[in-house]
Amino acid sequence: FTLVDPLTSPGKGVHFSDVAGLKEAKQEVSEFVDYLKRPEHYKKLGAKVPKGALMLGPPGCGKTMLAKAVATESNVPFLSMNGSEFIEMIGGLGAARVRDLFREAKKRSPCIIYIDEIDAIGRKRSSGSGQFDGAVGEGEQTLNQLLVEMDGMVSKEGVLMLASTNRADVLDKALLRPGRFDRHILIDLPTLEERREIFEHHLRVIKLEQKPALYSSRMAFLTPGFSGADIANVCNEAALHAARDKHGTVTGADLEYAVERVVGGTEKRSQTMS
Ligand code: ATP
User: Fold this and answer.
1) How far is the CA of 229 from the centre of ligand 1 (A)?
2) Which residue of 22, 167, 235, 257 could cross-link 119, Cys pair, CB 3.0 to 4.6 Å?
3) Is 63 in the pocket of ligand 1 (CB under 6 A)?
4) Does ligand 1 have an atom closer than 6 angstroms to the CB of 162?
């Protein structure tokens, strides 16, 4: 797993202000910041705080950013792992990794555990989908271990579990039961206004011919269906294009060229995948 600890890398984290748009999702997760900052307050009132939340939505829309922002704003360590890292594990290694992750989290509590692409380990057991072909028992063992660890986690331990997926439909129901991932936060593709905000955010670091506000509305209009990651990519491609063409500032034409390029890349990706 990867660890970001505010003690060893201060000032490096993602903040809520770095996440453009996603107003409701931000509001929902900001409750967690309060739990992590003032656990005693909740305990005194006899409130059981949620152990975790599942963030649902298409890739590149800010799920990881938001999870990291909760850690930064709460000033707690962030332990993360990608579900796909468990897939090729054999001989009980996947389950052992889950155990290690939770053991480490307990040591560092209060902290956040984040599992990206949880569907890679959390698929329905014995669904016959053949996802763990050749290692059926292994995948189930890993998922079972995750469930055991989640159940063993008491809210007073101050370990918050966040996970993300874009395939909620394939998740094992056991993961979604009360006391496990019973809170769901939808993080969808950005709306027109959100795309404008994301453009403004990413254009800020680019040397533009004119002010970011003069480009962001038009760019948002030209990019329906783009994720935040696509938008970040457009801004960077535009800067690369300007650098290649050796002009001193990034222009509207560079940005429009970059949109075409990112659309082209996305189309190619989906052709190879289908
Ligand atoms: P995945 O499911 O593929 O892990 P994700 O939803 O976790 O995707 P992130 O990793 O959070 O997506 O976002 C990828 C990148 O896209 C970010 O590093 C950032 O540059 C950009 N991005 C995505 N959403 C936003 C946003 N709301 N505001 C600003 N930047 C964004």
Assistant:
1) 5
2) 167
3) yes
4) no
Ligand 1 pocket mutation, candidates 17, 54, 61, criterion most atoms within 8 A of CB: 61
CA distance 156 to 43: 8
Q: Tell me what ipTM this predicted complex has.
A: 0.96
Cα 137 from Cα 90, distance rounded (Å): 9
Taking 70 as the threshold, does the pLDDT of residue 124 lie above it? yes
Distance (angstroms) between ligand 1 centre and the Cα of 66 equals 8
Q: State pLDDT tens for residues 15-63.
A: 999 999 999 999 999 999 998 888 888 888 988 888 889 999 999 999 9
Whole-angstrom Cα distance, residue 177 to residue 156? 20
Rounded Cα gap, residues 177 and 126, in angstroms: 18
Any idea what DSSP says for residue 47?
A: P
Please give the structure tokens belonging to residue 124: 């329905």
Q: What is the pLDDT of residues 87-109, one digit of tens each?
A: 766 667 888 889 999 999 999 98
Tell me the pTM. Answer: 0.88
* CA separation, residue 219 to residues 22, 197, 206, 254, 267 (Å): 19, 11, 15, 11, 19
Cα 135 to Cα 99, 130, 131, 172, distances in angstroms: 19, 9, 9, 17
Tell me if 120 CB under 6 Å of ligand 1: no
Asked if 35 and 160 count as a contact pair (C-beta separation under 8 A), the reply is yes
Mean of the per-residue pLDDT values for the chain?
Answer: 88
For residue 83 and ligand 1, the question of a CB distance below 6 A is answered with: no
Between the CA of 228 and the centroid of ligand 1 the distance, in Å, is 6
Q: Is the CB of 97 under 6 A from ligand 1?
A: no
pLDDT tens digits, one per residue of 192-222: 999 999 999 999 999 998 999 999 999 999 9
